[in-house]
Amino acid sequence: MGSIVSSYLPVSVIIPCYRCAVTIERAVDSVLNQTQVPEEIILVDDFSDDGSATISYLKNLKQKYQKFNIQILSLEKNQGPGSARNEAWKIASQPYIAFLDADDSWYPNKLELQYSWMKSHPEVLLTAHSSIQLFNDSHQKQFNHCKNFYPLNIIKLLFFNCIPTRSVMLKREIQYRFSPGKRYAEDYLLWLSIALDRHPIYFLGLPLSYSYKNEFGDSGLSSHMWQMEMGELNNYFLLFKTNKMSFFLFFTCSAYSLIKYIRRSLVRLFDGNKGK
Length: 276
Prior knowledge:
8 helices; alpha/beta; Spore Coat Polysaccharide Biosynthesis Protein SpsA, Chain A
């Protein structure tokens, strides 16, 4: 970690952690290597079932980077990443919040670009950007520093969750939260709830964040493809039930979601058979 801190951004970074000892330091390093470092980082141990390994590692990180404001929040039962983010949200002290998962990372000027744009557009509640998958830390790409945010098309968002949680920055004061106890597609429900209440979401096409595994099929929650699909279908039902979606839109989005699921399943089955 070699960044020189010139100023701190009024941002609370929230990172839910569950058995994350292998990847969390990479995530934290990517935050502390930002061109402008956030005022605070909140690490939430979601009651990891690895004895005290995760919490001990988090405490070691806090000690290692003691000149930065790193807080550790330990939950008394496992609640899933959405609820873990909500608990950190309650104690966040800064006017803006950025989310990062323990197995992901950020491009060095992600916070600076995103915060500066939101500061100059105070009416916007949420911004996001694109993300790419890397296979190791050495292949991070360089990008032109384009600052052209554009309003995300709500129809596109209804049919495709194009907002990676690792890319989101939002205002702490908003009344929306992740659905408590919901473990699959809980982030998608939050983005849709905000958008369907006619709050424009602005998007930057630059990939300023990185994941290191496939969205579907690898370890973690994303490996549970049917549960993920049920979570997405449940989102549409909840939005229909609360009159945010018409029946026609509910039916159309649900049908399209099932078609996407069947296609993903067939591709995964074909790839699996091809590898035998």
